[in-house]
Amino acid sequence: MDSSTSNWDHCLDYAVMSDVGLRRANNQDSYTVALADSLATWQKRGHLFMVADGMGAHAAGEQASKMATDLVAHTYFKRGDLTPPEALAAAILDANTQIHRRGEASLDFRGMGTTGTVLVLLPQGAVVAHVGDSRAYRLRGNRFEQLTFDHSLVWEMQQAGRLPENGASDVIGKNIITRSLGPGETVRVDLEGPLPVVVGDTFLLCSDGLSGQLDDDELGTVLMCLPPHEAATSLADLANLRGGPDNITVVVARVTGPQLTRSANADTPAEGVRPVHPVLWTVLGVASLAALGLAALEQYPAALVGLGIAVAAGVAALIQRHSGGPGDDGFDGRPLGKGPYRAATCGANAAFAERLKQMIADLREGATQEKWNVDLNRLDEATGRAEAAISHGDYAGAIRQQLRAIRSVMEQIKQRR
């Protein structure tokens, strides 16, 4: 771990996982994590996380997603002349241009493309930039929210009122996407936020290899029950146990300290209210006191000058606080996008524990029938601890043990593959 990463250990816990899945020969997903290398960079640009899901034959999708994650992170931090949302949009548009040019330059790469979902944690809150059907979520308490709108034919037709909310993917293939980076000369980028951040918030970025196999309440419950590094691997395990038809990429980021939150009361921020530069408060206070003192000495012309300065400073402070003009970092914090787009209530309960129990039974049966050379003793031990926890009504503890039991077998299977 480099020093820039360890600098944030006290307030940020994150993990990444990218798995090829069970039915793909290669992994066309990519991800990147770019933490601020200093306090000054954090205040101006924050921390960046990104997931990209590539599309195209002959390794074109793999190259497209890698180009996207590399280029977006590099360009975002380089464009200090722009506000963070502007820099994010510019970085994604630049990546689109370069991926498109690469695709046009070779028949093997023609039409190459990728999704791109970016999360930036800033002093003003969380900002998301998005193209495609990879997703960004936020877990707060037991509320699990999808922060991004899927650029898929199913979601677009649902929004237009041309498909029912339930069962739409049975009518139209749910993997038909309407926006991606690379195929076209330009692309429209969705921006969401800034969303207030509080201690305990957990953000999830993932490709559809995960979200296509697990329901939102299942995703949120796993995040609730495990620390990020375990949650990331367990989510990939569950997607694989559901068939693993696609590459699976997971980025989990949990805020563990107030250094990454907007304020102690970030839960209920005042919309459109920004900090005022301390110099304005100083001028306002000094000018007001000077005007009062001069008036007491009956030096009225000078007092009027002081009063005028105080009024001007007060007006400037109000304008800066409420007008939405750029502050020191050029980011006014005005809301972008319309998210969250969907929400689920999740929790450690008997129903989810029972689902995991059945998955463990299926895993054991498969290992026995296929004569996998795996040690099932750890599975038995963890399952026993889970049953004991259930008997005491500790479903969170039971789910932790069940997920760890699955992990013990899946690790052995991967090693033998």
Primary descriptors:
single chain; 417 residues; alpha+beta; Phosphatase 2c, domain 1; six-stranded antiparallel β-sheet; globular
Counting helices, strands and paired strands, the structural category is alpha+beta
Strand count:
12
How does CATH name the architecture of the largest domain? Answer: 4-Layer Sandwich
Can you list the strand order of the major beta sheet? 1-11-10-7-8-12
Rounded to an integer, what's the Rg over CA atoms?
Answer: 26 Å
Order of helices and strands: HEEHEHHEEEEEHHEEHHHEHHEHHH
Task: Output the CATH class name of the largest domain.
Answer: Alpha Beta
Distance between the termini: 28 Å
Structural write-up:
45% of the residues lie in helices and 17% in strands. By secondary structure, the protein is of the alpha+beta class. The chain has 3 domains: 266 residues, Phosphatase 2c, domain 1, CATH 3.60.40; 45 residues; 67 residues. The protein has a 6-stranded antiparallel β-sheet. Strands 2, 3, 4, 5, 6 and 9 form a 6-stranded antiparallel β-sheet that branches. About 4% of the residues have low confidence.
